[in-house]
Design brief:
Blueprint (H helix, E strand, L loop, with lengths): L3 E7 L12 E7 L8 E9 L4 H4 L17 E11 L9 E7 L3 E4 L5 E3 L15 H14 L6 E5 L4 H12 L3 E6 L2 H9 L5 E4 L6 H8 L4 E6 L3 H8 L2 E9 L18 H6 L3 E4 L9 H13 L7 E5 L4 H8 L7 E5 L1
Helix pairs in contact: 2-3, 2-8, 5-6
Bound molecules: NADPH dihydro-nicotinamide-adenine-dinucleotide phosphate (NDP).
Length: 334
């Protein structure tokens, strides 16, 4: 009997919002391992907004995906066969892997993860790429000082929910912006934000920010870009810091969006606006993971996950990111 190996390929480069038809399923043969290799069974797949950028045929900090080839993202997999002495059957690993049920690897780019320390899915979120993004973006660029005010957009998502909590741990006032009343309630009840704004129902976001931030905004951690960010910029303080982490509101735009120019207020208020990718802090990842784990163990930090079940639902889970269907980290359990 030939075992099938479901694989998800990029069928089209999406125009605007990704569609299910931009993805294609294929049944490949389950691979065999040779000396030095391991056979992996995919357990958890991370779907992330940045994958949208890789679906474009454009130069970026990561290679674009190729048409008719598997999509890759952060995944947790189980070693089910090993001819590599560094890995045993039953080990769990984290790595950038193909959207396939089974695949082989030489193991060089994989990190072993331990289910006894944290649930496996947490290595894709709070203890993984998105947690580290929150930690380094806020501490290295935002440089929060006790008593300062932080505004976070995309606040109920994987990165934003961790940013807000770190802000509170460091003694700041934190205001989050998210897309539903339920998410705003969760910001306050679960993550300890001081206030929240629903950008879909707020009549005047800029005014709500001004009302919630009587001393102005010292740090803006931006996950969404676009109009929401223009409204936060209008409230930024002198010597404020704008951490440009993401711009999800623009990822599906077909033309480069225009808006208010930023130079005027950056100059007048001596504001720092800095973009980054988490990979910039590669060498400090162990330090970041250690700190996040410590806060988790001390119950100063918590996290939410939206876990979708089933390999077939990976493309839909990815599309749902652009519809705000997730609270916290969006993950597919295979
Ligand atoms: P999230 O978990 O935040 O999921 C995406 C969320 O974005 C949705 O739930 C939705 O929440 C919100 N959203 C979707 N469309 C819009 C829109 N048009 N306007 C405003 N909000 C929208 O994703 P992540 O936490 O993984 O990522 C957050 C941001 O950080 C992304 O922009 C991502 O690209 C970026 N990022 C950057 C990294 C870096 O190294 N610089 C690394 C990781 C992520 P809602 O219901 O509130 O609208």
């Amino acid at each position: 009997m030939i075992m099938k190996n479901k694989t998800i390929l990029l069928n089209n480069r999406p125009t605007g919002k990704p569609q299910l038809s931009d993805f294609k399923f294929s049944d490949e043969k389950k691979p065999e391992i040779t000396e030095g290799e391991i056979l992996l069974k995919t357990k958890f797949v991370s779907v992330d907004p940045y994958l949208r950028g890789r679906m474009r045929d454009a130069e970026s900090y990561v290679e674009p995906f190729k048409l008719d080839e598997p999509i890759t993202s952060g995944c947790i997999a189980e070693v089910i066969k090993s001819k590599n002495k560094s890995f045993n059957k039953g080990d769990f690993v984290l790595g950038s892997l193909d959207w396939k049920e089974y695949q082989t690897s030489k193991g060089s780019e994989l990190l072993k993860v331990d289910e006894k320390i944290a649930p496996l899915s947490a290595y894709l979120g709070v203890l993984g790429m998105t947690g580290l993004t929150a930690y380094f973006g806020l501490t290295e660029i935002g440089k929060p000082k006790k008593g300062e005010t932080i505004v976070v957009s995309g606040a109920a998502g994987a990165v934003g929910s961790v940013v807000g909590q770190i802000g509170k741990i460091l003694g700041c006032r934190v205001i989050g912006i998210a897309g539903t009343d339920e998410k705003v309630a969760m910001l306050k009840s679960k993550f300890g934000f001081d206030e929240g704004i629903n950008y879909n129902t707020a009549k005047d976001i800029s005014k709500e920010i001004a009302d919630f931030c009587p001393d102005g905004v010292d740090i803006y951690f931006d996950n969404v870009g676009g109009d929401i960010s223009d409204d936060v910029h209008a409230n930024i303080n002198r010597f404020g810091r704008i951490v440009v982490c993401g711009a999800i509101s623009t990822y599906n735009e077909t033309k480069v969006p225009t808006g208010p120019r930023v130079q005027g207020f950056l100059i007048k208020k001596s504001v720092l606006m800095q973009g980054f990718t988490v990979g910039n802090y590669n060498e400090k990842f162990p330090e970041g993971t250690k700190q996040l784990s410590k806060w988790l163990n001390e119950e100063k930090l918590t996290y939410s996950e939206t876990i979708v079940e089933g390999f077939e639902d990976i493309p839909q889970a990815f599309i749902h990111l652009f519809e705000g269907k997730n609270k916290g980290k969006m993950i597919v359990k295979v």
